[in-house]
Design a protein that fits this description.
- The protein is 32% helix and 26% strand.
- By secondary structure, it is of the alpha+beta class.
- The protein has one domain (66-281): Nucleoside Triphosphate Pyrophosphohydrolase, CATH 3.90.79.
- The strands form 4 sheets. The protein has a 5-stranded mixed β-sheet with strand order 8-5-10-9-12, with helices on both faces. Strands 7-6-11 form a 3-stranded antiparallel β-sheet.
- Strand 9 (184-194) and strand 10 form a beta hairpin.
């Protein structure tokens, strides 16, 4: 075992605030008492990272898009099923089905952006995407990162900051055109879906609504196509998806089948649907 890992374990043991036990996906897991202090959490982040690096299966990415592979090193926020932070791990490790099957879960968001005509902006994911390439989906779907700015949980501010960042990165929307304050955080959904035999998703997904006319300059490495649709046009697309005439992402399909059109019908009265205490298991 690496000296740094032994040192971390000895330090945690001396504090007596936590217990380590074997775990199927990254070597260690943390059973925390209410007394665990920030220093202990930092130690466990180091232990988790070292364990993860030594215990993950080797996956070949040589055949994948170079830019998308670079993004696999981003650190996502690991959570439990009640959306409580428990650590961090790479985007790559969070999206391997081998880890998802063992319970690895991370925080995510889905943005639904409408223009002044109340048309919804959709994107078609580029063929370079590692999960669900070529699928149609809502405006923007991604993950807050394990950074101070995007870890902020009060009023889901960290998630909304991440959404602003990704709207710029994917769609080229200037940051000042959609601010975190303009996004309405409605609720959360918990879902799991396989993209192929290697990659998949397992997320607690924050649903964000915004109505704004924006400038677009999509990154072709992220987005193959985009369009604004009416409710009727989207319903027609979803029917085509059921007939296998086009593909939509599983989270978008779940949201569209359950909540989307009810929210869309009440764009100017969304407060009645704001539910920050529930996590909808789908």
């Amino acid at each position: 075992m690496a000296p740094a890992l032994w040192a971390a374990l000895r330090s945690v043991t001396r504090q007596g605030a936590a217990v380590l036990k074997p775990n199927g996906f990254d070597g260690v897991t943390l059973l925390r008492s209410k007394a665990v202090n920030p220093f202990s959490r930092d130690i466990f982040s180091q232990v988790r990272h070292l364990g993860s690096a030594s215990g993950m299966p080797e996956i070949t990415t040589d055949h994948l898009d170079e830019k998308q592979v670079q993004l696999l090193s981003e650190m996502c926020i690991l959570i439990d099923e009640d959306d409580r932070k428990i650590g961090a791990d790479t985007k790559k490790n969070c999206h391997l089905n081998s880890n998802i099957d063992k319970g690895l879960l991370h925080r995510a968001f889905s943005v639904f952006l409408f223009n002044s005509e109340e048309k919804l902006l959709l994107q078609q994911r580029s063929d370079a995407k590692i999960t669900f390439p070529g699928c149609f989906t809502n405006t923007c779907c991604s993950h807050p990162l394990h950074t101070d700015s995007e870890l902020e949980e009060k009023d889901a501010l960290g998630v909304r900051r991440a959404a602003q960042r990704r709207l710029g990165a994917e769609l080229g929307i200037p940051l000042e055109q959609v601010t975190p304050e303009e996004m309405t955080y409605l609720t959360r959904i918990h879902y799991k879906a396989q993209s192929d035999g290697v990659w998949g998703e397992h997320e607690i997904d924050y649903i964000l609504f915004v109505q704004k006319d924006v400038d677009l300059s999509p990154d072709p490495n992220e987005i193959k196509s985009h369009c604004y649709v009416t409710k009727e046009e989207l319903k027609a697309m979803l029917e085509k998806a059921k007939r296998k005439e086009l593909e939509v992402t599983p989270w978008f399909s779940l949201i569209a089948d359950t909540f989307l059109f009810k929210w869309w019908d009440n764009m100017h009265n969304l407060k009645q649907f704001m539910d920050h205490s529930s996590i909808h298991r789908m």
